[in-house]
Request: fold
Amino acid sequence: MSRTHRTHRTHRRHRTLLLALATVLAAAGGTTVASAGDGGTRAAAARVDNPYAGAKVYVNPEWSRKAAAEPGGTAVAHQPTGVWLDRIAAIAGGNGTMGLRAHLDTALQQRADLVQLVIYNLPGRDCAALASNGELGPTEIDRYKRDYIDPIARILADPKYAGLRIVTTVEIDSLPNLVTNTGGRPTATPQCDVMKANGNYVKGIGYALKQLGAVPNVYNYVDAGHHGWIGWDDNFAASAQVMHQAATAEGSTVDNVHGFITNTANYSALKEDHFRIDDTVGGRSVRQSKWVDWNRYTDELSFAQAFRNQLVSTGFRPGIGMLIDTSRNGWGGTARPTGPGPATDVDAYVNGGRYDRRIHIGNWCNQSGAGLGERPQAAPAAGVDAYVWMKPPGESDGASREIPNNEGKGFDRMCDPTYTGNPRNGHNMSGALPNAPLSGHWFSAQFQELLKNAHPRL
Ligand code: BGC
Reply:
């Protein structure tokens, strides 16, 4: 066990003790945090170090039904997946869909210990892409606070739910976009420049962390992109800094951040076994290969662990834990390499050995060849609280052609298999599956492919 790991665990135990002490003091001061949950007396415990440890995680019946209705789907339909609050109306639900309270009540019925929510409705959402543009315009920060975050926080604070550990993953893709897709960079978009200039991503996240973090049984995890995005020197420290800025905006503090999540709804392989960042071929480093392209990381696990350290040195608590979304990064099936590529040159070596079969690591929409990854599990590696399926497998990343809708969703050519790319994917083909529905809608063909290419196998 590495030194870093020992330090990490010691700090985490320390924090748990402090939190336990705080609860005892609060109780002694007359603040009661006990509740009568599902007919019993489940008390709100102090936040634990790793909320996933020993926890039964809520299975979203809406996703589960869709998965089970697919041929072969019952093999995974019992797995926990994230509940995406992707618009204001998702809080109340209705029209046949479950709202937030319905999910939490069902979690109590399931006798689950932990529920996974995705907070995803920032003003000017998805500024570097179109597929998941949302309902709020770039300036609608007040609506975000009042009509989205406040109602969610009120529901989560209901004493009825005090016995649940509520994991909130906060605003996927937003802060990394402020670093990599702004300013003079060739990857910049006008929309990301607007969101950087008006500060509404940073303010929105600070506000969300503060309001949600005020609920004692909420565990905030901030989105941290993935290695094929933040793993370059230009992006790594700068991203940690923006995350710190957001975590301390609008009266929030780093104490509202329990950890970070990487690879949400992305496809980056968890571990590449057949090539390592320090390998050289014919005197050239793996970092010089086209695929790695000077990145410092070859896979998600090494990135998540290193980025955790970076975040701590930027001012986050030493006890923070990482989540990694492994819903679609399995890359199994017949195309999965069983050994390293030929040592003829560094490109042949990396391309022949890599599990991640994407055309380019910047490809993100409905990737052809992808499979389900590691099943959700607690504490799988040092510094990692859990592998999770935050993106529900089978839900589209975006439509492969223009589809009129009232969800604010645009048509992003990265979801069109005939598209030849842009600066953000090095002008490569998109690698997307054809005939995809709008983001978030059920995409049976993709689900089938994910089952077929699952790794570990089902
Ligand atoms: C969509 C959301 C959806 C989520 C989960 C996102 O890409 O924009 O509407 O809830 O994926 O599938």
